[in-house]
Structure prediction request, 503 residues.
Amino acid sequence: MSTERRDGRRRGMTRRKALLLAGAGAVSAGVGAAGLLRGWGSPTSTVSGSPGAVPTGDRFVEPTVIASEGGRLHVTLSAAAGRVTIAGRSVQAMSYNGSVPGPTLRLRPGDRVTLDLVNRLGASTNLHTHGLHVSAERNGDNPFLHIRDGETFRYEYEIPRDHPAGTFWYHPHLHGTVADQLFAGLMGAIVVQRDDSVPLPAQRERVLVITDTTLNGDRIAQANQRGRMLGREGELVLVNGRLKPTMTVSPGGYEHWHIINACTSRFMRLRLEGAELLQVAGDTGRLATPTQVDNILLATGNRAELLVRIPGPGRHQLVAEPVDRGGMGMGLGRGNAGGDTPATLLQVEAAGEAAATPQLPGRLVEPEDLRAVAVNGRRTLTFAMEMGRGMGGGMSFTIDGKEFDPDRVDAAVRLDTVEEWTVRNTSPMNHPFHLHVWPVQLVARDGSPVEGNPQWYDVVILPARSSVTVRVRFTDFPGRTVYHCHILDHEDLGMMGVVEALR
Ligand code: C2O
Ligand code: CU
Ligand code: CU
Prediction:
């Protein structure tokens, strides 16, 4: 097995930036934004044939589960280009182990995971374990690796004994290609289970990986320049690769759902009318108490765990309402390019005798509150979009005025400190702020303190022309990793910085 790896150090323009500028053609610095963007059409190519050509009526299915045993997991993920079934159609796409999503990995704290990534994509890639608190160095969750076509690379992860329970996911992270490879089908769920978690009175657990894509005949549509700038949204919103599948549940009791927004750019507000929804976890770790919610807002990358109860027999729909992500300003289009109508994700059919409603635990965890701790350092990051800057025009997506450079350290932090980061957004579009390895707590929005129980996030929505303040406890893992906008098109365009944790 080849274990060759190289850090992703490339000077100058990123590949994506080069493509973007090439696409912009003869645009000179003097041509306005409207001229640049006019006539680009919809953000992705259109579907050939009517949307009705996509079969519905599938059963709800879950990805294959691969679970650790006795503290070990050895798994091979083969990333390949080829035919897979998406939305009930045979499509030329990219997948892990031949299915979209790839297998669900079930882990426990203390596990040692060996993951062989086989690259048969015909292009370079790598793998990121989004949300896991593991080392980012060497062959850990290292976003700087390039795994070339034809290579197999062995990743190793040690899940700390104190790792929180939660729902996480994996996807490629090779800068410049992340959005394309995720949109093409490369993603999968990770569930970390703790044996000492307060038991939930659920009759079953389910994993729902929500993705979006656009099919162009039997291929995945390519995003155009406008789609990349806005953050592409697919025409089809899928649950575990299926379109509006039907799930059968028993009424009365609770189900425990792990929901992942694995879309490239789409935000969604999930609703399930007629059901009782109790949130028990967000991105990482449990909430203090089961919390009744009417809907759940998930930015790209966010997760939620819900206890779902449908009181009696009947049919219900899980819908994703579109969320306005803002736009490019100057009338150049808006972020919720997927449209303004809710998408039905799932048909939920409650059939049979209603079971008695179980008793819920009062407390789930006692989360640490970073609002109550001493802060060792403060910094401000500014997310911005700038027209006509740099190489002959186009739009730049920057943090502190700079595009991503893997060779530059943007934030050097000390381990065993708590930092407060105020992340500002000067642009007219939302940018979900994501930090690898260390979860954050939200302490203020636009300078106003956030009240209520503490909650851990790894993706925090940064609204247009606004700011969020988060606190981070940097623990355990020295080395370099990244923070970025989780609209992955923006990340590919350069909206990413490097953090280095020093002992
Ligand atoms: Cu899911 Cu660096 O991202
Ligand atoms: Cu991540
Ligand atoms: Cu962004």
The radius of gyration is 22 Å. The longest strand covers residues 72-86.
